[in-house]
Structures are given as structure tokens and as C-alpha cells.
């Protein structure tokens, strides 16, 4: 198929669960630390409401956080470039 390696992502992940949320703390070599918060949603759940709940949870942790839509491989490429 012509696949070849283009980027190596080295990370350490710690996970926890709280109040129906899955919390992942990733340390990515060359990039830093990332927090991911997820929860399962039903078909009747409003996207904006769920995103607001997740954002409120992150704020309640008292840590400085910035949302990014980028993937780790894109961030690594940008950091190297």
C-alpha cells in the first residue's frame, strides 16, 4: 500500500474516571502535557451542552488549559518545522 513512517509519537498516558467522564493525561515527548476529557453521549444529547459540561469540569481542576483541535502528529510536525 506504500505506507511509510512519517512521525514518531512517544507518549505516556494516565487515565481515570470520574462522574461518568474518562480523563486522560498524556505526556508527549517534544510537546508537553495534554488533558483529554471524554464522555459517552446519547442520541438526544445536545453537543453544545456536553462540550460546556466538559469545559466546566476542566475549569474546576484549576489548571491552565487551552483547547486544540490538532492531533499529536500535526503538532509534532509543526514543532519540528
How much is the radius of gyration in Å? Answer: 15 Å
CATH topology: Hypothetical Protein Pfu-838710-001
What is the typical, i.e. mean, pLDDT? Answer: 92
Class by alpha and beta content: alpha+beta
- Looking at this structure, what is the CATH superfamily? Hypothetical Protein Pfu-838710-001
SSE order and pairing:
Layout: E1 11-18, E2 21-28, E3 32-38, H1 47-60, H2 72-80
General description of the model:
This protein is α+β, with helices and mostly antiparallel strands and 81 residues long. The protein has one domain: Beta Barrel (Hypothetical Protein Pfu-838710-001). 28% of the residues lie in helices and 28% in strands. The protein contains 2 helices and 3 strands, in the order βββαα. A 3-stranded antiparallel beta sheet has the order 1-2-3, with no helix packed on it. The model has no long low-confidence stretch (mean pLDDT 92).
Amino acid at each position: 500500500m506504500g505506507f511509510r513512517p512519517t512521525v514518531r509519537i512517544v507518549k505516556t498516558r494516565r487515565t481515570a474516571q470520574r462522574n461518568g467522564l474518562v480523563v486522560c493525561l498524556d505526556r508527549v515527548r517534544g510537546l508537553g502535557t495534554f488533558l483529554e476529557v471524554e464522555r459517552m453521549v446519547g442520541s438526544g444529547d445536545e453537543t453544545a451542552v456536553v462540550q460546556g459540561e466538559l469545559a466546566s469540569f476542566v475549569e474546576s481542576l484549576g489548571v491552565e488549559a487551552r483547547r486544540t483541535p490538532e492531533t499529536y502528529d500535526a503538532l509534532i510536525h509543526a514543532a519540528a518545522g
